[in-house]
Design a protein that fits this description.
The chain is an alpha/beta fold. Helix content is 41%, strand content 14%. The chain is globular and about 50 Å long.
């Protein structure tokens, strides 16, 4: 009889977990211990976490709230939100000087009318390129033309495009071709056979597992990846190895 239980058979480092409460919705995990319990259920050893208040209200304030979700046990790693304003950049650079920055996530300035253009982002993106801090950008919140045009001006920037959804299927190949230093996070990229097709075209080293929990459930994409034709070595890269490598390359 086939078991209905699933747990990852290789090490897993989730690249995309949101913590904290929305203004109108409580998180299913009220604290760090509850998050670790959810991770253990699926066999997820490590996770990059960012605070929802940094995403929806204020990067500076939300980053402060993130501290309570962190520990030194090597299971949760901070992902700081940043926007191209002096106070936000100053906060990130101060954290970087203390050795606390391994990745950042761009705040969605499109929602307040500031486009992702070099004239608005040059100071921030130039610095992130120089120190090789992986920069996570939400595809659902991005304008595809602005994304490719602007990131092409910073070829040394390590970009991770998060929240890929099957509705982005026509974007993915042109974006990965145009941005050879970009990675694709797979939280909802579910077109049948597409993981293998992207592996064949771009290599497994360009793909990264993330769940975007609790926006989406933690397990489905992990289960899906385990049932593709990825080799065990490729699966290990996608589920942990690629993310670990780019985080360790921060200067």
């Amino acid at each position: 009889m086939v078991s209905l239980k699933f747990k990852a058979r290789i090490p897993v480092f989730d690249a995309n977990i949101r913590v904290g409460d929305l203004h109108n919705e409580l998180s299913p995990c009220r604290n760090r211990n509850q998050l670790l319990t959810e991770m253990d259920l699926h066999g997820v050893q490590q996770a990059l976490v960012y605070h929802v208040q940094a995403e929806t209200i204020s990067p500076v304030d939300g980053n402060r709230y993130l501290e309570s979700w962190l520990d030194n046990d090597g299971r949760t790693y901070p992902q700081w939100l940043v926007m191209p304003s002096s106070d936000s950049i100053s906060q990130i650079q101060t954290l970087y000087a203390k050795g606390k920055v391994q990745s950042v996530r761009l705040y969605d300035t499109q929602s307040v009318g500031l486009p992702l253009r070099p004239w608005a982002y040059d100071g921030l993106l130039s610095w992130l390129s120089e120190v090789r801090v992986p920069t996570f950008i939400s595809l659902p919140d991005a304008n595809s033309d602005e994304l490719v045009t602007t990131l092409s001006a910073y070829p040394e920037l390590v970009a991770v495009l998060v929240g890929a959804h099957y509705q982005h299927a026509l974007w993915i190949r042109p974006i990965l071709t145009a941005l050879p230093n970009a990675y694709l996070e797979l939280s909802r990229y579910e077109p049948i056979g597409e993981i293998e097709a992207l592996r064949d075209e771009f290599g497994a080293n360009r793909l990264i597992y993330g769940s975007w929990y609790p926006r989406y459930a933690m397990g489905p994409m992990l289960f899906y990846l385990h049932h593709t034709t990825l080799t065990e070595a490729e699966l290990a890269l996608v589920c942990a190895g690629n993310l670990t490598r780019i985080l360790e390359e921060v200067l």
